[in-house]
Description:
Layout: H1 2-28, H2 31-42, H3 53-56, E1 61-69, E2 79-87, H4 95-107, H5 114-118, E3 130-136, E4 139-145, H6 149-164
Antiparallel strand pairs: 1-2, 2-4, 3-4
Helix pairs in contact: 2-4
Amino acid sequence: MKARMGMFALSMAIGSGLLVACENTQELQAPADQATAAERVRCTADFSDATISRVLDGSAIEHVEPLYKGFASKTSNPSLQGAAIVVEPTKGDTAERLARSLECHQAQQPVATASAVRADPFRLQGSRVQIDVTGARDGFRIELTGSSSAAAREILARARALAAQTGTAQGQTADTR
């Protein structure tokens, strides 16, 4: 009985040591890295770049507009948060499926080439882009929000460039504060 208790204590000590080691590994990762790792687990072939190729190459984009937070008044101005991209629907697609596919695309950032990341409004080097997708009339509205004003300006510039490379009409203002 005493030997069994000793083995139990030893296995508990080893198990808790492994648990602490796992927790320490999680603490070493930045929150953005943890989120990216979690997305990779959820991403399957059903959510590959091939399923959203028309969005990624710009051909599905109807227009791009700046995304602001707040409103203009005598004492305040709205602040640029990023870009809103309105895209044509793909047969059988839903807002949730499009959002997951874009999040999976973003999670592939570490394996993407530097030039691909440079032209992509859905991912920024060293910063996470918040992606929200909603239905918009007969298409989808993709809101891309940056974590800083510099990131917001970069997202908007990339979204406009993506739309411009396919000749998409871009009903937006020139203001990018």
